[in-house]
């Protein structure tokens, strides 16, 4: 297969975009793939059904386990069709025995549970690798597309399971009454043999075969497209293809130019060529700076080998004693590390459960620059009266309700900022100030300031007057008492 003959556009794609491309390729040739499936897979299913006709409950498991064999003929057809060579039905059918027998045991045993089965199958089948080379190749490709291959397997497995359950229960009503299970008896006694008739099991088997026939070719095509996308990203197939097509277009022009140069050189060229030694020309070229080999020094860690001690002749009892001592030393070392690990784990759990003991609830002792103006209000002690509560009561009695609340609110902020060192910034709002006071940890001050803030916001912004009882309570509960009530 030549890269120039590929029929799909090679470019780095997202994983699910590449999977969609594979499904589109399968849709293009779905008729031919179904014909090959009917001539290769269906006879195997008929053989399995005949051999296990007495125990049809085992047939779905056999059908699922043999999936790696089904995928090979569709992959052979898709790989040829992707490179412009559409194999005929007879040519593909002739390759069927060879495709199924090649690497059959690894595919059905230790590689059967691989989550990147369709992504790794092209490396095993198309590249002609064997043994450890296949494992190394798959590991290299999986570094770029292995995760996408696993998610694609998960997606197609769920799609197949959903389609299978939908088909079984969608056609359940078409079954005769003798083939319908006794679900009540089954859930009461869990007797599978007497509650589930063989007719229902054969119905499940047929539905599963139909779903696998419709879904599995698309799974193979999506895995093949992921494989092509991975090689395009790693090996730069798209760039290589551009250069190959460019070289093909320039071949004729280059040949004509070479012939013209040979004709123009005449007889002098053979003479000059004879005078030059090819080996000398090669050495001169290799001495050019472009061909200089740069070697990067590297360091490798090498363990110091212990010096061999002089061996003393020992008898058998000495060897037995040394063995017992070594085992005792190993046990002691293991016990010591177990105790250290347990102690470290206990200490970590203890610290985590008691982390609240190490968190300071008080106000930070770092120096805080006290603001002088908050929300347009002057809160310096000089701007406030000596007895704030008395001044607030006097303003309230004179009918200046907003001024009374303003005195209490400004006095509270002044005391909290200058005396309690609550970290309130000059850009904070009423809500920010309340948050800082609550975090300070003094419950009495916090409760009072919460009530005072609500009353102040109600009177200042909502223009709703505060009741006499509430104002009296705010004055009576004033907690910032120092030197006769001064702030």
- Sheet with the most strands? 2 strands, antiparallel
Large-scale geometry? extended
SSE sequence, one letter per element: HHHHHHHHHHHHHHHHHEEHHHHH
Radius of gyration: 43 Å
Global structural class: mainly alpha
Distance between the first and last residues' Cα: 93 Å
List unreliable stretches of 5+ residues.
Answer: 267-274, 308-312, 360-366, 483-487
- Lateral arrangement of strands in the main beta sheet: 1-2
Number of helices: 22
Number of strands: 2
Structure, briefly:
The protein is an all-alpha fold and 487 residues long. The protein has helices at residues 15-28, 30-51, 59-65, 67-70, 72-82, 89-94, 96-101, 104-108, 117-125, 132-170, 183-189, 192-195, 198-235, 237-265, 268-275, 278-286, 316-353, 388-397, 401-418, 430-440, 443-460, 468-476, and strands spanning 373-374, 377-378. The chain has a two-stranded antiparallel ribbon.
Descriptive labels:
487 residues; 2 strands; 22 helices; mainly alpha; two-stranded antiparallel sheet
Characterize the structure shown.
By secondary structure, this protein is an all-alpha fold. The chain is 66% helix and 1% strand. Strand 1 (373-374) and strand 2 (377-378) form a beta hairpin. Helix 5 (72-82) runs parallel beside helix 13 (198-235), helix 10 packs across helix 13 (198-235) and helix 20 runs antiparallel to helix 21 (443-460). The termini are far apart.
How are the elements arranged and paired?
Layout: H1 15-28, H2 30-51, H3 59-65, H4 67-70, H5 72-82, H6 89-94, H7 96-101, H8 104-108, H9 117-125, H10 132-170, H11 183-189, H12 192-195, H13 198-235, H14 237-265, H15 268-275, H16 278-286, H17 316-353, E1 373-374, E2 377-378, H18 388-397, H19 401-418, H20 430-440, H21 443-460, H22 468-476
Antiparallel strand pairs: 1-2
């Amino acid at each position: 297969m030549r890269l120039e003959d590929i029929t799909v556009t090679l470019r780095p794609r997202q994983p699910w975009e590449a999977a969609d491309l594979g499904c589109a390729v399968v849709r293009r040739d779905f008729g031919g793939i179904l014909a090959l499936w009917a001539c290769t897979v269906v006879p195997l299913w008929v053989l399995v059904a005949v051999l296990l006709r007495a125990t049809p409950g085992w047939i779905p498991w056999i059908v699922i386990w043999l999936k790696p064999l089904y995928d090979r003929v569709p992959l052979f057809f898709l790989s040829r069709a992707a490179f412009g060579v559409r194999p005929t039905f007879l040519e593909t059918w002739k390759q069927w025995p060879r495709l199924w027998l090649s690497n059959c045991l690894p595919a059905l045993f230790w590689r059967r549970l691989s989550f990147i089965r369709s992504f790794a199958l092209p490396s095993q089948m198309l590249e002609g690798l064997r043994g450890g080379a296949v494992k190394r190749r798959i590991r290299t490709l999986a570094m770029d597309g292995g995760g996408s291959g696993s998610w694609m397997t998960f997606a197609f497995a769920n799609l197949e399971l959903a389609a299978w359950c939908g088909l079984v229960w969608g056609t359940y009503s078409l079954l005769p009454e003798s083939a319908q299970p006794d679900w009540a008896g089954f859930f009461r006694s869990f007797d599978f043999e007497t509650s589930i008739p063989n007719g229902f099991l054969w119905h499940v088997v047929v539905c599963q075969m139909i779903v696998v026939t419709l879904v599995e070719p698309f799974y193979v095509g999506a895995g093949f497209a992921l494989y092509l996308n991975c090689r395009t990203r790693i090996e730069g197939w798209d760039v290589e293809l551009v250069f190959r097509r460019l070289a093909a277009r320039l071949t004729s022009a280059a040949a004509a130019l070479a012939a013209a140069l040979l004709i123009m050189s005449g007889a002098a060229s053979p003479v000059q060529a004879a005078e030059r030694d090819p080996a000398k020309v090669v050495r001169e070229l290799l001495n050019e700076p472009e061909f200089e080999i740069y070697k990067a020094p590297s360091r490798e860690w090498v363990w110091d080998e212990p010096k061999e001690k002089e061996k003393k002749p020992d008898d058998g009892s000495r060897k037995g004693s040394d063995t017992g001592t070594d085992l005792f030393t190993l046990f002691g070392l293991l016990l010591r590390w177990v105790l250290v690990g347990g102690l470290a784990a206990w200490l970590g759990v203890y610290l985590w459960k008691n982390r609240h003991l190490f968190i300071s609830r008080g106000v930070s002792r770092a120096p805080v620059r006290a603001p002088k103006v908050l929300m347009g209000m002057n809160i310096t002690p000089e701007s406030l009266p000596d007895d704030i509560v008395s001044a607030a009561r006097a303003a309230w009695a004179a009918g200046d309700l907003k001024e009374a609340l303003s005195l209490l609110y400004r006095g509270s902020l002044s005391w909290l900022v200058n005396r309690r060192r609550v970290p309130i910034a000059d850009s904070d709002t009423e809500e920010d100030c309340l948050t800082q006071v609550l975090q300070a940890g003094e419950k009495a001050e916090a409760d009072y300031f919460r009530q005072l803030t609500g009353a102040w916001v109600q009177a200042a912004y909502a223009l709703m007057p505060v009741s006499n009882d509430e104002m009296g309570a705010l004055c009576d509960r004033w907690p910032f008492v120092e030197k006769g009530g001064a702030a």
